[in-house]
Amino acid sequence: MSNTLVKKILVVDDDENIHDIINLIFEEEHYQIKGVLDACDLEATIADFLPDIILLDILIGKYDGRDICNKLKHNPKTAYLPVILLSAMNMDNLCCSPNDTIGKPFDIMDLRQKVKASLNKSS
C-alpha cells in the first residue's frame, strides 16, 4: 500500500479533459493523481504507481473498462484496490463488480464523496 499521508488516484480514461478535471477536484486535498489515456500497460502502471484507488472509464478506446475491472478484481495482486467506474453509458447490468459507479457528467461533490468512502473502506 502506498504512503498513508498521500493517497494516490489512478485515472484510466481516454479523455484528457477528465484527467484535468479530476486533478482540479482533488488538488486541494493533496492527492497524487496519475492519468493514463490507454489501458494497454495497466498492470505495469499499477505496479509502478501503487494507487490507492482507480477511477476507470468504461469505454477506453479499444478496451472495455468492465473487462478491466473484472481482471483487476480477480487478480490477487490488485483485488484489494477500490475501482470506481465512470461512464456516460447506462450502468445497469455491468457484468463486473466495481466498488462504486459514477455517471458522466459527474457531480464534483458526489465524486469526492465516493472516492473518500471507497478509500475509507479499503484502509
Automatic annotation (TrEMBL):
The keyword Phosphoprotein applies. Gene3D superfamilies: 3.40.50.2300. SUPFAM superfamilies: CheY-like (SSF52172). Residues 8-119 form the Response regulatory domain. The modification 4-aspartylphosphate is found at residue 57. Keywords: Phosphoprotein. The keyword Phosphoprotein applies. InterPro entries: Bact_response_regulator (IPR050595), CheY-like_superfamily (IPR011006), Sig_transdc_resp-reg_receiver (IPR001789). This is Response regulator.
